[in-house]
Each structure stands twice: as structure tokens, then as C-alpha cells.
Amino acid sequence: MPQIEQIAATLSSQVFWLLVFFGLTFVVVGLGMVPKIMGTVELRDNQIAGDLAAAQAARDIATAEEEAWRKRENANRVAAQSVIGEAKAKAAAASSAKLAEAQTRLDSRLAEAEGAIDAARISAMAEIETVAADAARDIVARVAGAEVDPAAAQAAVKEVMAHG
Amino acid sequence: MAAEASAAQAVQNLEAAEAGKVDPMKQFTIEPLLGSDWQLADGLSIAFTNSALWMALTAVLVWVFVAGGMKRALVPGRWQMAVETMTGFIDDLLEANVGKAGRKYVPYIFTLFMFILFGNLLGLVPVGLIPGVHAFTFTSHFTVTGVLAIMSFSIVLVVGFWKHGLHFFSLFWPSNTPAFLALPISLIELVSFMVRPFSLALRLFVAMMAGHVLLKVLASFVIAGGSGGIGTGILVGVPSFVLMVAISALEILVAGIQAYVFALLTSLYINDAENLH
Lengths: 164, 277
What we know:
Chain A is mainly alpha-helical. Chain A has helices at residues 2-5, 7-143, 150-163. Chain A has one domain (11-163). By secondary structure, chain B is mostly helical. Chain B has one domain. In chain B, 69% of the residues lie in helices and 2% in strands. Chain B has helices at 2-17, 50-67, 78-97, 106-124, 142-164, 179-227, 230-274, and strands spanning 32-34, 48-49.
């Protein structure tokens, strides 16, 4: 086993060169490079964490904005609804007022027309009486040859018309 | 130790006598490549060996791997993603076992994990296909794993006594336990605590060595079977080769697991020092 046989001859060389090369590695790599590499990793982790936080913040802001927009929109909708309701009520009132006005106008014209019709009928009646009395007088004169007084004829016609 | 060494020497001599045999232990031999007479002080040789070369290769590869992930792009590419996955893996490991205070140990645990992992994996690269080149797994030497374990254990001791002072000894004292039970338990705890660096070092060393020995033993079966004729080649050589392929895959898994276990246990021990109950 050379490890044991050569120990006396090689111990100092082994220890010396191990300390030299391990020490060099420790100083150059361990102390010089490893902290820098770990710093890079940490820097990256921080950057990622920062980016994630920024994204989260932006998302929160967007959510809040959307909430506010929703509220505003709801308020606007309610206002619009009330405006529509008001307009509807106004329009309904206006149309009912117009309708009422038209109704009264129609009523008055109807009444007027009815009055005119009555007057026409009365005058027509009077005309018919006169025509009937004249006719009766003519008939009497042709049939009986008697001259009837127009007033008497009129009275007789009136009596007959009254009895129907 | 000495007896074992001489026994191993005897075995080696015996095998050397039988020429043409594969010595499964030869791969762990340390050979100086240059500067075989370099010395720190009198008698302290610091020859640049094949072991040191593979440590250097590991260090360079770890550096190349991590440097490839240094673009620091906001959207990472594949390489950067791979490096960030590794640092994130160690970061999570410490976060889970030590908590927020574990962050400051990431450079050490990361270096430890990557150094062991790349060392383990490099030893498995079949560079032996190139004549004259031999792969070497420095984590299969307890001198190396021992130093790594002692470093981890020292950090635990320093942090423990620094943060808690002598109160750190309460680590061994079980809470809400009557004294006649707590006394022997604390002794057992102390022993298990002191054994930690050894278990840490031996676990990695044994796992790596065993895998490489097994691969070499199977390789010797393939060679012996092949040179024994067609019949033994098919009967012994082919199944051994198939097994080698499967065990190579297993060894890649073990390379990762052992590096992970070393890092995990170190972080668990650091947790004891950081968060004294």
C-alpha cells in the first residue's frame, strides 16, 4: 500500500502542495468568484421579485379602476333610467292633456252639430206641416170643391200630426 | 502499521517477481515529476509529484468551470446555469443544516466540495489509454483527505470556541439528563467528537481507494483471461470487462456521493459550533 509505505517520504510534499492548490482554489474561486456568482443569483431573484410585485400592483390598480368604472357606470345607468322615467311621465301627461283637449273640442262640435241637426229637423217639421196643410187644402179643394181657410187647415194638420 | 507495511512490501515483491501481472496498488504510488530535491527546510521535501500535478489540474479545472459562469447575465446561459446550480446547491445545503449563519461558509464548503469532486472524477478519466500517462486520484491518499478533514475540524473548533468560549464544552453534555447518565454519555460524545476528523478522512480515502483497486483487479482479470486463450477470454475476460464498465459508472456516482458526504458532514459539524444547543 503506497499510501503507508511512502508516507514518510511524501507527507510534507503532499501536505504542502495540497495547501498550495486548495488554498489557491479557495482564495481565487471560493472567495473571489463564488460571492459574485451568488450575488448575480440574488440580483436576479430580487429583480424577479420586484417585477412580480410591480405586476401585482398594476393588477391591483386595474382591479380598483375597473371597480370604480363599474360604480360610475351603475350610477350613470341609474341616472339615465330616472331621466327616461321622467321623460316618459312628462310625455304621458302631455299626451293625456292633449287628448282631453281634443275630447272637449270634439264634444263641443258634437253638441253643435246635434243642435244644428235639431234645428234643421224642427224647421223641416215646420215645413212639412205647411206642405201638408197646403196639400190637404188642395186635396179638399179638388175633392170637395171647398175652399178651406189655410189657418183651419194648418190646425187640422197639427191635430192629426199630434195624434200620429 | 509497520507490520502491515512490511507485509504489503512482501506482497509487492512477490507480485513483482511474477512478471506481467497487474499490481492494483501501483496506481497509488507517488513519483516525483520535477524538483525531487526541493525542500522547505532540512528534510521537508516538497517535490512536485504526480499527486501535486493532479491537484494542480483539479484546481485549474475548478477555476475554469467557475470562471465559465462569471458572465453574470440576467438570463443565464447553460454554463452559467450549471455554475449557479452548484453554488446554489452548497448554499441550500448550508442553509438547511446551519441556517442563515451558514452563508459565510459557502466559499469554504464550495471549494471543498468542488475540489474533492473534481479530484475524484479526474482520477476516473481513462487517460491511461495514452501511453506513458497515468491517472492519479489524490483523494485516495489519507495524507490528502486527512489534511482536508483537519481543516474542517479546525474550523469547527475555532468557530466553536470563538463564539461560545468554554461553554462550547456543553456540546458534550446532554440536556435534561440526570448526572449519573450524563457523565458517561458526555464521555461517549467526546470520543465520537474526537473521532470525527478520522472518520471524515478515512471515509473518502477508503471509498476512493477501494473503487480504484476493484477496477484494477478486474482489469487484471481481463488481461489474464485474454492471454489464457479464447475460452477463458470469453468466460472470464468478457464478464470482467462488463463488470468493469458497470463499476466505472458506480465509481462516478461514488465520486459525487463522497464529495457530497464530505461537504455535508463538514456543514453538520459547523452547525454544532454555530448553533450550540
